[in-house]
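Recall the central idea of this unit: under ordinary conditions, the amino acid sequence of a chain determines the structure it adopts. In this exercise we apply that idea directly, starting from the sequence alone.
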Amino acid sequence: MTPKQIKTYRKDAGWTQAQFAQAVGVNKNTVARWERGEITPRGLAARAVSSMLTGPRLGETFTRMHALGHSLRGSAMTGRCNPPTGDPDEALRRLLVASVACGSALVVIGGLAVIAHKVVRFTSDIDMAGLDPADVPCFLAECGGQGFDVRGAAPKSIQGSPFHMVSFFWPPVHDPDEPRGMGVDVFLCDHPFMAKLRERSVGVQHSVGRIEVASPEDLVVMKLEAGRIKDLEDAKAVWGSYEGKFDKAYVSRWAKKLKAEEAWETVRLLFSLGDRGWGKKKAP
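Accordingly, the structure predicted from this sequence is:
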């Protein structure tokens, strides 16, 4: 890999040096030195950069980052490369097959959607939304037929949230001493916001075909409603990816309706402060 290849890939993907550095586990100055030809990637960083340069672009398939993240974390903790639990691409494909069979249009949310909006991060599960409540029995039956572990899966409320979801696993693991697999959470379309999220979804070309992903604003609203520190960081990062094209008024309206105004104010403060990796413009 040459300095020009690294720089060209990074710019084509729409990443800053800091974002690219986070993806491969180094600091921004190291990436700058790679691109100037002062040093070359080594060790795990070399493997990560090589994987990016020889693989598909982020806009074409983004679950590659999921597999890479598991591999690098496994290497760091155990000295060996551990494969991720299950194949996220295959899980996503089968989820879509099951949803189509039942007439529901699912939308990708959560970590995979954050990645789809050009934010570098890793995820270990699959989150989707838009399942019609009446389709739940059909959907779970279809997912079971597709190889998911749906034992005990049923609609459930989320503490402190107006939303409901069903949870299950991929792939099913029958060893009682092992985790059940990759977690899958599917939110029901039983709230006005979920209907709006599904309506406003955007199409993304993925290795399994064209999929629907939550719009940046709706994804941020979901993150505000969840309210965890990592969710607020995701919200800030997604906003930073769109700068002037981001509809803050829309987010403000739904933050108020979902009682997530405090979280929204926190994200606005974080955005105004900026940091080394994400947006540095002040929020109005």
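Residues 3-78 form a domain with the 434 Repressor (Amino-terminal Domain) fold (CATH 1.10.260).
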